[in-house]
Amino acid sequence: MGRCAAVVDCSQRARDVRRGGGRTARGSARPGCGGGGRRAYGHDALGSRYSPLAEITRENVSRLQPLWTFHTGEAADSFATARPTALEATPLVADGAMFVSTPLGRVMRLDPRTGAQAWVFDAHVDRKADYGDFVSRGVSLWRDPAAAAGSACALRVLVAAIDARLIALDARTGRPCAGFGVGGTVDLKRGLRNAPSWTEEYEETSPPAVVNGMVVVGSAVADNNRTDGASGEVRGFDARTGRRRWTWHPVPQDSADAGWRTWTGPNAHRTGAANAWSVIAADPSRDLVIVPTSSASPDYYGGERGGQNLYANSVVALRASTGKLVWHFQTVHHDLWDYDNASPPALVTVRRNGRSIDAVLQATKTGMLFVLDRETGQPIIPVEERAVPASTVPGEVASRTQPFSATPPLSMHRFDRNSVFGADSADRAACKAIVSRLRYEGIFTPPSLEGTLAIPSNVGGAHWGGVAFDPARQLAIVPVNDIAAVVQLIPRARHDGKMEEGWEYAGMRGTPYMMRRRILLSPAGVPCTPPPFGALVAVDVQAGTIAWRVPLGTPGALAPKRMTEPGGADSAALRALGSVNLGGAIATAGGLVFIGATLDRQLRAFDVETGRELWHAALPAAGKATPMTYAVNGRQYVAIAAGGDGGVFGKSDEVVVFALPAGARH
To answer: pLDDT band for position 34 (50/70/90)?
Structure first.
């Protein structure tokens, strides 16, 4: 379900495309819809994470330098919270201004050349709250086509605060737009099918999508608490008034819906979650939003929600104006592994067999890349249903098959028990002993009473970092993790109330079982799975093959101690280990891929054609976010929120911006 779009609404451009019967080239977009700014989380409404800027190239990127840093202030003691927060926002740039949001619901307007603050809005989020993912991944922008230039709220900043308030602000002043909702705010907890049982069960971590004057919002729902968890409706709101225009239920509530019969059991249709907590992509010209949904509640036991469970764990196309279902593709049937669609969809044009096809790229926690036709949802690269292991848990009926993309796996699908890793021979022996006691029959081995080895883990595979796409080279670039988890179901009647250190426990109320899980680490704190623990992977979507795969970063605290001591290992040996990573990549016309994401707290640039690392720079904490690039007066900048997570990724409240020195710009 997850913890884990944003756009200046270019509706006029969409109408122009429809009238002209063709496409507008990326580089020729009218002002406000492309070019030198970044006006959406994924660069544009389509979420391609590609920039046409090319001042920074493979030849000069080695000279990239920090230019300015902005502190949000939330690392100070005066902003202390009960639970660690993470600055994961991707800044947006429009009309000569940068907009940044924070976990505490504060929004800032900055000068993109210097970082000087023009205004700050404070939503006054409760700092004592216990949100599972205390983050904000950014804001959205909407330009009101009926408003006079320069008038109040002609350009709006839309932020979905962690406490489930949708707020509209005037981009010039930071003041709430009085005509939106009640005093500029819409309460997103109102009108849900299953109301939250407690404040933090229902939250917002991603920016909304804005398309043709409609604000489309998903949600994040706390995992594994109860069968009838908070419901995961996707809703459309009028961007001018905040009035709710439509609601779509990922757990069907209409018996005439084809998905209704894929939920079996007396209480199945009361199931919660199946929510869209990741970023929603939009195709304005087709009046579509592409919604990535997550697992139904609870994640690891589905005995109370029998069947295939459409439209959980699916990529869903909805009519943006009405919320009507257009098509769907399910990436995991009857999810038992917390295999949410965490990655934002990327809407791109792929070339296959001499044809150009508008497509949806969806990377998954299962380590697969699905390439779907944007009109129909049908696979462009073939998908095969393959037999997978059955469940041995009383009351559970796992799906007999799961969908597998013909594209080679992005991350490990099969683990050889003899290939365990560890800090030394004794540590490896301990890992082998742990693994030998666990059920494991390859990917999609269901949770069990004795404990199951889950590869990929609930972290992925591909994660909320998503996909960056280079259209010229037809390369999809995806950050992935290659670590395992241990998942165990515990009969509720036999649980003695004790909780072992190092495990995460969940109640799963309404089922006969509790659940516990942990990342599979050795006694020395090193992953038991072989390196690299994280990688950056490029897929050639024309050929359906892996173009390159390189370890991403170095593992920080997860490295064997012997390798981090003086003289313990050279840099090449550490780089070969890779890093657990959370954060996205972007691609540019300069032939580059930029990504932070790693435990070693670096921002890196890679050659998009080869995967060779060309540059890196230290950050104050991990860039657990997606970077962005923009241009002002012909100068290209690269920005990243380097906020860490308050734990192993470090802690900071800084946005860091890089640029070439004047002499290296040409």
So the answer is: very low
